[in-house]
Amino acid sequence: MSTATTAPRRGWGSRLLDGVERVGNRLPEPFTLFLALFVIVAVASTAMAWAGVTVQIPGSDEVTEIRGFFTGEGLVWLTENLGANYVGFPPLVTVLPILLAVGVAEKSGMLAAAIRRLIGSAPRWALPYAVGVVGVLGSVLSDASFVVIPPLTALAFKAAGRHPVAGLIGGFAATGAGYSTNILVTSLDALFAGITQSVVGVLPDPGAPVNPVSNWFFNIAAALILMALAGLLIDKVLEPRLTRQGVPQSEQADDEDGTPSSEAVTAELTAVERRGLLWAAVAFVLTVVAVVAAVAVPGSPWRNEEGGFLPSSPLLSSIVFLVFLLFLVPGLVYGWVVGTARSVADVTTLMGRAIRDMIPFLVLAFVLGQFIALFNWSGIGSWIAVTGAEGLEAAGLTGFLAILLFVMLASSLNLFIISGSALWTLMAAVFVPMFALIGYEPAFIQAAFRVGDSATQILTPLNPYIIVLLTMLRKYEPRAGLGTIIARMLPFTVVFWVAWVAVLSVFFAFDLPLGPGNGIFLDQ
Question: Which residues cross the membrane (predicted)?
Answer without folding.
Answer: 31-53, 86-105, 126-149, 216-234, 277-296, 316-337, 358-377, 397-417, 424-449, 455-473, 485-510
